[in-house]
Specification:
This protein is mainly α and 103 residues long. It has a domain of 70 residues. The chain has five helices and no strands. The longest helix is centred in the N-terminal third of the chain and has 22 residues. The structure holds zinc ion.
Length: 103
């Protein structure tokens, strides 16, 4: 296998992975993006190692925490601050939301 071929396969693998991840998200991409922005807002209270903020957000959007929180946990989001760091790591590219950006 030559280098280009390897590169192509790698890119394809990544694309498939992202597609699978994308289709597993139990909410709209925009809502997920809003959730991340909400958890990263300036006046967010310190994380008390629960999903208090996440659940508050989901309820305000009429989303069902029972289906979404387990998905967040699958991606390392065991509390509000971990949703920002771990879930963001997985889905940052998909939602097109980056921590470095001021939004
Ligand atoms: Zn936390």
């Amino acid at each position: 296998m030559d280098k280009d071929q390897k590169k192509r396969l790698k890119a394809e693998f990544k694309r498939n992975e992202q597609e699978a991840l994308k289709s597993s998200i139990p909410m709209e991409i925009d809502e997920l993006k809003d959730l991340l922005s909400f958890l990263d807002r300036e006046d967010v209270p310190p994380c008390d190692h629960t999903h208090k903020e996440t659940i508050g957000f989901l309820k305000s959007r009429n989303l069902i925490p029972e289906t979404i929180v387990p998905w967040l946990q699958e991606h390392g989001g065991y509390c509000d601050c971990e949703v920002i760091f771990n879930v963001y790591n997985d889905v940052g590219d998909i939602v097109g939301w980056h921590l470095e950006e001021d939004e």
